[in-house]
Amino acid sequence: MRLSEYFLPTLKETPAEAQIVSHRLMLRAGMIRQASAGIYSWLPLGFLVLKKIERIVREEQDAAGCQEMLMPTIQPAELWRESGRYDDYGKEMLRIRDRHERDLLFGPTNEELITEIFRASVKSYRALPKLLYHIQWKFRDEVRPRFGVMRGREFLMKDSYSFDIDFESAKRSYNKMFIAYLRTFHRMGLKAIPMQAESGPIGGDMSHEFAILAETGETGVFCHRDLLGFEVPGDDLDYGSDLQPIVDKWTSLYAATDDKHDTAREPELGEALVKARGIEVGHIFYFGAKYSKPMGAFVTGPDGAEVAVEMGSYGIGVSRLVGAIIEASHDEAGIIWPEPVAPFAYGVINLKADDPTCTDVCEKFYRALGSDALYDDRDERAGVKFADMDLVGLPWQIVVGPRGVKNGTVELKSRKTGESEEMSIDSALNRVTG
Question: The pTM is what?
Answer without folding.
Answer: 0.95
